[in-house]
């Protein structure tokens, strides 16, 4: 490999590494991979650019699925409410909706793994999986006395990418939800259909767009 010249005292890194390994109260619980990922995150973070980030392997896999526009999952938006993992909303016609999940349902376990102190990315990585496989969620609803186990078979989930409609005065409204791999084709089709109807202007709505492919 090409020799990398570091303009600084890199021995400080190893000195800190060794002190942490020797002196940290729970040193036996420290995973080298986690320390390396944390160090890389620190290097990238030193650029102080909010758009330059390091994604560890699990997060990178999720990001790749998001920008591809589809993945195997249950079709539900999840989030953290009052330190508890919950269903924000199941998507229309999704396995989650068909299984009876509702907005506000609390997720206590995913395949037997407690969600206590679990972040959303970790939960998503456990819920997503190969199409046709099953995921078990322990769910507590407002009117239930105790959690119930709900089994859901994963299917291909298509991320809503774009919607469009004609407004008054021959204006076409296009809402682009994500710059994923499907965006080019869908935007072309929407634009072509609108042009064939005759338009005098376009409203392109990019609000709340999480980004995606730069191209």
Compile the SSE list and pairings.
Layout: H1 11-23, H2 32-45, H3 57-68, E1 70-73, E2 76-81, E3 84-90, H4 95-98, E4 106-110, E5 113-114, H5 120-127, E6 134-140, E7 148-153, E8 155-158, E9 162-167, E10 171-176, H6 183-197, E11 201-205
Parallel strand pairs: 10-11
Antiparallel strand pairs: 1-8, 2-3, 4-5, 4-6, 6-7, 9-10
Describe this structure in words.
With 215 residues, the protein is of the alpha+beta class. Helix content is 31%, strand content 27%. It contains six helices and eleven strands. It has helices at 11-23, 32-45, 57-68, 95-98, 120-127, 183-197, and strands at 70-73, 76-81, 84-90, 106-110, 113-114, 134-140, 148-153, 155-158, 162-167, 171-176, 201-205. The strands form four sheets. The protein has a four-stranded antiparallel sheet, covered by helices on one side. Strand 9 and strand 10 (171-176) form a beta hairpin. The protein is flat and about 70 Å long. The two termini are 31 Å apart.
């Amino acid at each position: 490999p090409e020799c990398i010249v570091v303009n600084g005292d890199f021995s400080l890194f190893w000195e800190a590494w060794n002190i942490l390994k020797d002196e940290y109260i729970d040193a036996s619980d420290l995973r080298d991979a986690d320390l390396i990922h944390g160090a890389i995150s620190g290097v990238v973070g030193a650029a102080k650019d909010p758009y330059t980030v390091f994604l560890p392997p699990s997060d990178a896999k999720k990001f790749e699925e998001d920008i591809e526009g589809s993945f195997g999952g249950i079709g539900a938006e999840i989030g953290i409410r009052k330190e508890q993992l919950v269903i924000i909303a199941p998507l229309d016609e999704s396995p989650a909706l068909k299984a009876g999940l509702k907005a506000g349902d609390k997720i206590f376990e995913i395949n037997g793994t407690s969600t206590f102190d679990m972040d959303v990315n970790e939960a998503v990585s456990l819920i997503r999986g190969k199409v046709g496989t099953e995921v078990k969620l322990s769910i507590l609803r407002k009117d239930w006395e105790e959690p119930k186990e709900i089994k859901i078979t994963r299917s291909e989930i298509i991320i809503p990418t774009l919607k469009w409609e004609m407004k008054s005065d021959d204006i076409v409204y296009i809402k682009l939800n994500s710059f994923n791999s499907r965006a080019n084709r869908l935007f072309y089709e929407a634009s072509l259909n609108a042009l064939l109807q005759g338009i005098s202007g376009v409203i392109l709505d990019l609000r709340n767009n999480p980004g995606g492919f730069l191209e």
